[in-house]
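Hey, can you fold this one?
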Amino acid sequence: MNIPCSVDEIDMHADLHTVLGYHQYTKHRFEAYAPGPAALDWDDQPAAFRHFEGAEQIALPTLVEAMQDPALSSALQRSFSALAQPLAPLPTDAKSLSVLLQLSLGITAWKSYGPDRWAVRANPSSGNLHPVEAYIFLRSITGFADGLYHYCPDSHALEQRATLTPSGGSPQVLVALSSVMWREAWKYGERAFRYCQLDTGHAVGALRYAAALLGWPLAEQRQASSSSLQHWLGLDRSEDFTAGREAYTEREEAEILLSLTPEAEDLTWLQQACATASWHGKASAIDRHPMYRWQAIDEVALATRHAATKNHAQCEPGRPDQASSTGADNDKTAAQIILQRRSAQRFDARHTMPQKDFYALLSSALPSAHAPWDALATGPHISLVLFVHRVEGLQPGLYLLPRTERLATLLDARLNPDFLRTPVESAPPDLGLQLLTPAPTAELQRVARSIHCHQDIAANSCFALGMLAEFDAAVSAAPASYRDLLRETGLIGQVLYLQAEALGLRGTGIGCYFDDPFHNLLGLKNTEYQSLYHFTIGLPLEDSRIETSSTYEF
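Sure. Predicted structure:
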């Protein structure tokens, strides 16, 4: 006898089917890349910055101005390794909010080459396309009316998108992130949804590091559903997003809500305030002349929206002693390291990384109870597979960093049984690093280059890695977990970026890799584990032809 399923079960099954189909369809293969545009109009790219015309714009202080405040000046002198140590929270005002936004989502430099000029931001982005938009809910904050504000990185200003009815109560600051998915889809086609989630994870990491510098918490608020957040941000107000010719190029997808104040468990005040909000401004156009449309992105975005749930602590939050180690011995402050972060374009193929720095960097990638790992409400589900090319005292080969004992146990029965799985004796015992198989340098570099879409940056670095996700179990339990897994890899990427900078090296996120050939290399037979993001670290080779100029008068 057939027992009818509930509507929720039917919907979940349909969503799961959409997610699994999308992930499989958007894999790069040796035979063909994922569906994407056949041509790009480089002279008519999507707008890099969005504004709300008619909304009041409030200029934020620069870092130079913020440093006139003794407490902020002291905070900005903290070392990078000290960010995991507790700090009394600084007052929330225009100067501290300015520091938070500039060090997480602001422009850190302008680059130019010939007639071309582009911005570099604190938060990295696939293709430097930056789909992430940031909004801030403020209540009872000195100098600001209660309201919803949109952050403008190009002018380092806040636009008041909505006025909220004052509700009194303690000061509250919540940051919400959204994605303009067309910015990525314009270049990357259907794989763009993946990259928007990676970028969201990077942005969360960037915000968490900046918040730690100010002594502030930052935590995801899962009690706000995706649809509620979409409504509270006014992203469902279609009448405010009409500047472009096509609606799909202008839409923003609500991604995540983060609290910067500890009293955010009850969001009733926000729900009530948004119900009577007065809205201001019309969104500027992203792309008036799109050449393509990728329907699968809309479908997977809808299938992965999450329902409201209670906040809960992450599982396996241990190893707090490892989180603060950088292995760096320099005099640069955390702010300087954050502001200098870049994506390397080329690496010195002769540079060998010191062993102690390699272990310190890997230790920083282990989950812990400290920042930045306390920002996301889920995880950890990601292990690291490393192509080690040139690390002092280590033979070239394929290595595994499970990140937790649970993941190590689960992978035991999944990876190629011919792998050695030998613990690396010189590594810290708590690291859990394993040698899978040694390989001749030339052969290892050839494989790394081939797996990563034939890119030299994966072969010429000191090491490259793939982030292997516990996939089927997570998305089968909740299709919305697809976003969570991708965001966790983005957060890991942000840690690697900054840790590399602290060591005098540089990293590069790699979104282009051949999915299943990488899985085959590891002996994985099905979709229980899937690689969701790759990364590479080494000594960068700078292009002297590119000119750099500062921004925000700093």
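The chain has two domains: 33-38+59-77+86-303, 342-538. Let me know if you want another pass with a different chain boundary.
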